[in-house]
Each structure stands twice: as C-alpha cells, then as structure tokens.
Known about the structure:
This protein is mostly beta strands.
Amino acid sequence: MLRSHWNALAVGDRVLVHDPDDPTHQLVAGVITAVSVTAGANEVDVKVATNGKASRTIRPQRLAVHSDPVDLDEECWRCDRPHR
C-alpha cells in the first residue's frame, strides 16, 4: 500500500492483509482497530479472523496490506502478480 494511502487509514476501514501466520501469506479480510500516528508511516492494528478461528489483532507492515476492494493497479510481490 502506498504510504499516502496507509497514513490515510482510519479506525473502521476495511483492508485485506497477507496473514503473517500463513506460510502462503494468504489474503484475509480485516478491519482497522487503531492507528498510531508516527513520523513517516503510521502504525495500524488490524482485527482479522482466518479459517473460522477466533479473531486476533495484528500490526502488519504497510506493504502487506491492500485496500478492500483491492486497487486493480496495485502490484504486490506477495501475490506474485498485479491485481488485474
């Protein structure tokens, strides 16, 4: 995610996150639960639930997050292809 889009995220925004606990880095849906404004890129907490498990909160890196719906012009090395 571009830094300008990342820093514009707000509590309640929906995102897609590459699950850090999944070896394939599957995309999972999440909701922003907290934003900490910092110099440079903000820090965000995202509540996610995967495979019917209880939800958990993660603090992903900016480049592991996509807008929801996905920006069709965005490229992602984790997805290994453009979202087209």
